[in-house]
Each structure stands twice: as C-alpha cells, then as structure tokens.
Amino acid sequence: MRAHALVLMIATLTACTGEKLDTGAAGDSIVGKTYEVDLGKGDVAGAEDLAATIDAVLTSPVLTSITAQAGDTIDMRLGLGVDENPVSQDLCARTLDMPQGSFDGTNIAIGPDTVSFNANGDDYTLEDFEVSGALSADGNSIEDMSLGLTIDMEQAAAYLGSDDGQSVCDDLIAPLGLTCGSCSDGGTTCLSVTMTGIPADGVDVTLEKVAESNAAEGCEG
C-alpha cells in the first residue's frame, strides 16, 4: 500500500520537432487549451513497470492547460480531473502553475527549475523540474511529452508512513527499479525521475486555479 502511495505522489507532483502551429499574434488560438496527460503510457528508463503501476494506482486524470502565451514564452498549469465521461476538473485538488517556459510555435520547454508548494499540509520542493513536448499542428494534442523532477524523500517520508527518507529509498524506491542519489544539500535520499513519450490529448475543460486543496464547497477536508 505504501508503494502505491509513493507512485501516486510521484504521478501527481508528473527538444521535440513538428510542423509549426499558427498561434496568432498573441497566441489566442492555444490559450485556454487543456490536455489530459496519460502518465500510464510514458516510459521511465530502468523502471519499466513504473508507468503500468501509475496507470493502475492513479485514478484521477492529470490535466495541463495553457494559461498564457506571448512571443516566445508560454505559461502552463497542472491539475487533477474527475474520471468521468467527459472528464472534468477536480476542484478539490490544488493546481500548480509551472514556471514560465519557452515556445517557438511548436516546441514547449519548461525548466529545469525549482518548484515549491504545499500539499497534504506539508511543504514540498521539486528540483530539476522540467516539461517538454510539441504541440500538434492543430493544437489539439501535445506530442512526445516528457516530465522530469527530483524530490528529496525526506520530504515525503511522513506522508508515506516511513521514519525517514532512507527508509523510503530502501523499502519503496528500490523495489520499483529506481535508486535514490545525491541531493543539492549534500544528502543522499533524492529521487530523480524522467518520464518520456507521454501522450496528452485535448479535452474540453477549463482548468481553473485552485490555491488550496479541499477548500471548495462540497470537498472533504
């Protein structure tokens, strides 16, 4: 069960080429577009079963949307959806506005950067956070999407029911075929993950900013 919790945490915390998209003078044609990110179909080198495990454990769709685009910059947001047909946003789950990225009309590149946020009442910092992908010519999908991040398991130990980060690395990370490594502060309990080949297809959802989990009416605190 703790292994499932680890996969869920990784999944929710988740240079290409192609025909250039006509984004217009201010990128109005793509601003507001939202995509469902299928982490279960991505690839993680050295951990072939991780994506399948994510697919089995993560019951909430992962959504990303383009919130602004001007010149060679792009702003995007991550959030969770409700698994229904059609998919909708889970307004009880906080969203994450990613660092501003670059955009050349087709290719998206965000980071690597450091992202800090609060979730489940705890503070988390993701280092080496980066996202890349290529918009399809019609803007209705993001192709060859990749997601990379580094997180210190000391931050996640309490959430995962472990005494410390090293226990997480030994008991939960290793069985998944992954290995903890060096941290920027000199520690050795950091997990770096890069997932590639993630499909992301357009969905008819407006991904609203949610600053705090379970704050909306009807949410279970």
Write a structural description:
The structure is a single chain. The protein has an 8-stranded antiparallel barrel. Mean pLDDT is 83; it is low at 14-27. The longest helix is centred in the N-terminal third of the chain and has 11 residues, at 2-12. It has 221 residues and is mainly β. Helices cover 14% and strands 38% of the residues. The chain has one domain (2-18, 25-202). It contains 4 helices and 11 strands.
Q: Helix- and strand-based class?
A: mainly beta
Mind summarizing the main beta sheet?
A: 8 strands, antiparallel, barrel
Q: How many structural units, i.e. domains?
A: 1
Helical segment tally? 4
Low-confidence stretches: 14-27
Percent helix, as a range, is 10-25%
Shape label: globular
Q: Could you spell the SSE succession in H and E letters?
A: HEEHEEEEEEEEHHE
Widest sheet, order of strands: 1-3-4-7-8-9-10-11
Quick rundown:
This protein is mainly beta. Helices cover 14% and strands 38% of the residues. The longest helix has 11 residues.
What's the SSE blueprint?
Blueprint: H1 2-12, E1 34-37, E2 43-44, H2 50-57, E3 62-70, E4 73-82, E5 88-89, E6 96-97, E7 101-103, E8 107-119, E9 122-135, E10 141-152, H3 153-156, H4 165-173, E11 190-203
Antiparallel strand pairs: 1-3, 1-11, 2-11, 3-4, 4-5, 4-6, 4-7, 7-8, 8-9, 9-10, 10-11
Helix pairs in contact: 1-2
